[in-house]
């Protein structure tokens, strides 16, 4: 009999008792889906470093179990900094209507809680089973308790960005949040979405969000994510996106939080003229670990993808970038570009990079590149020789390093907000 990690065994021990309280437990198709996820997770356990896709990220600090930290002195709900009329808030993994503002959403846009949809019998929002051999997604399928469901009708455009906040506060007794988010955009629809994942430092918990996105013909989704979890938290996120003909998916992930974080994205380009843009920046220090793993699959001819990720690492921080572009046979006239760059502010910081191209077609245009290094000492000396003190000179060079990836954000308000966040992080450099 296979010996499971302590945390996996904890989930197995509690599944029978937990499932009767999970949303949609009375719906046969949902119950069967949970059983399938549970069986897969039981067979696989949490991935170890012998699994190729996880060899740079060691989950041992998580799988040994999570002991909640003492309640923080200030456990009030953090105020939202991003200004928008459309706000949906989840506290400790559950939808909070009192902290949400959804009354100004235009006609043709439905935003609801997954728990409410499942309890109402609307299991169709879950779509197809996508966990395959991904145990963390399988665990989410077994224990998913809430999340948001965004449905946008054909031709509808959201007038302002939608902010969805996931806030983790100490004191609830629950140390894991298995969120399942669903996004469906109709033909020609356009939406801007900002996700925020926020926690109180010192509060230990495990966030396991899974997001399933389907973009119909000509739809556009600008999907931004700010991950600022507690410094004691674990954040393992999976985002899957299907793009139809002419659809555009723009993703930008800004990571500053969590003790250990992994942001895994898969784009499946299923139509000609579709574009997948996966960009991001991770700013980490101390003993933080941040892993970005992407897979872009070009499944038909004549479409494009682009990836640019930049990291700034201080202290003993560890960064990971694994990016793969896959072009199947006969997917001709495809363009795929990928770039990863990391700036190490300490000789104890490190980054592991694994860019990949898997090409089975001959009429394609692809590139990939990866680099890491320290601040340019000559440039630093030059600025200091012009009367700029060392700390200010360092910040100028770091700003310049980040500037071009932030410019990839097409929404002006989000770009300004993320620039403010990064500037605040750099004040402590």
Automatic annotation (TrEMBL):
What SUPFAM superfamilies does its record include? Stabilizer of iron transporter SufD
A Pfam family this chain is assigned to: SufBD_N
Q: Where is the SUF system FeS cluster assembly SufBD N-terminal domain?
A: 8-162
What InterPro entries does the annotation carry?
Answer: Fe-S_cluster_assembly_SufBD, SUF_FeS_clus_asmbl_SufBD_core, SUF_FeS_clus_asmbl_SufBD_sf, SUF_FeS_clus_asmbl_SufD, SufBD_N
Locate the SUF system FeS cluster assembly SufBD core domain: which residues?
A: 175-401
In Gene Ontology terms, what is a biological process of this protein? iron-sulfur cluster assembly
Superkingdom is Bacteria
**What family does this chain come from, according to its entry?**
Belongs to the iron-sulfur cluster assembly SufBD family.
Q: Which NCBIfam families match?
A: sufD
Q: Under what name is this protein listed? A: Fe-S cluster assembly protein SufD
Q: Which organism is it from?
A: Sneathiella chungangensis
């Amino acid at each position: 009999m296979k010996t499971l990690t302590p945390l996996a065994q904890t989930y197995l021990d509690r599944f029978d008792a937990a499932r009767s309280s999970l949303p949609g437990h009375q719906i046969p198709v949902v119950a069967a889906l949970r059983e399938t996820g549970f069986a897969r997770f039981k067979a696989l356990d949490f991935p170890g470093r012998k699994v190729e896709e996880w060899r740079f990220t060691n989950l041992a600090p998580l799988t040994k179990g999570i002991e909640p930290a003492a309640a923080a002195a200030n456990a009030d709900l953090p105020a939202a900094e991003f200004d928008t009329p459309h706000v949906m808030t989840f506290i400790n993994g559950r939808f909070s209507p009192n902290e949400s503002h959804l009354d100004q959403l235009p006609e043709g846009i439905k935003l609801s809680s997954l728990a409410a949809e499942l309890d109402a019998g609307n299991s169709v929002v879950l779509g197809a089973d996508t966990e395959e051999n991904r145990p963390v997604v399988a665990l989410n399928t077994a224990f998913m308790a809430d999340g948001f469901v965004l449905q946008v009708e054909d031709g509808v455009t959201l007038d302002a960005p939608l902010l969805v906040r996931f806030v983790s506060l100490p004191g609830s007794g629950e140390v894991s949040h298995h969120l399942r988010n669903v996004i469906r955009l109709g033909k020609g629809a356009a939406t801007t979405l900002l996700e925020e994942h926020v926690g109180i430092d010192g509060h230990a918990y495990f966030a396991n969000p899974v997001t399933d996105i389907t973009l119909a013909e000509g739809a556009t989704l600008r999907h931004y994510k700010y991950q600022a979890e507690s410094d004691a938290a674990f954040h393992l996120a999976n985002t899957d996106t299907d793009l139809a003909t002419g659809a555009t998916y723009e993703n930008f992930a800004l990571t500053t939080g969590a003790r250990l974080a992994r942001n895994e994205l898969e784009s499946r380009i299923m139509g000609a003229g579709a574009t997948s843009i996966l960009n991001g920046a991770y700013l980490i220090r101390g003993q933080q670990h941040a892993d970005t793993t992407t897979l872009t699959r070009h499944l038909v001819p004549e479409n494009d993808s682009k990836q640019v990720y930049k990291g700034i690492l201080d202290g003993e921080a560890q960064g990971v970038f694994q990016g793969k572009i896959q072009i199947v046979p006969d997917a001709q006239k495809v363009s795929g570009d990928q770039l990863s760059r990391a700036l190490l502010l300490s000789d104890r910081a490190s980054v592991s990079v694994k860019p990949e191209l898997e090409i089975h077609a001959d009429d394609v245009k692809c590139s990939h590149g990866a680099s890491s290094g320290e601040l340019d000492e000559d440039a630093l000396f030059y600025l200091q020789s012009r009367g700029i003190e060392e700390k200010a000179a360092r910040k100028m060079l770091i700003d310049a390093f980040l500037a071009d990836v932030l410019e990839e954000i097409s929404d002006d308000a989000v770009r300004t907000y993320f620039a403010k966040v990064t500037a605040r992080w750099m004040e402590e450099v």
